[in-house]
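Colleagues,

For the teaching module next term, I've prepared a clean inverse folding example: a structure given as tokens, and then the sequence designed for it. I'd like students to try predicting residues themselves before seeing the answer, so please don't circulate the second half yet.
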């Protein structure tokens, strides 16, 4: 899994390293936040 992530991060170096990397990081963080929020609401619904 780590190798795949590193490959996806290193691969776009040919075009524009900085923008593509920051875009990937932002998209990854958004996905993580969305996942955590959905888990939180799911837990709240089941508890209450």
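(Answer key — instructors only)
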């Amino acid at each position: 899994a780590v190798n795949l992530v590193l490959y996806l991060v290193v691969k776009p170096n040919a075009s524009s390293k900085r923008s593509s990397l920051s875009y990937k990081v932002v998209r990854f963080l958004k996905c993580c936040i969305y996942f955590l929020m959905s888990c939180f609401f799911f837990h709240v619904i089941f508890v209450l």
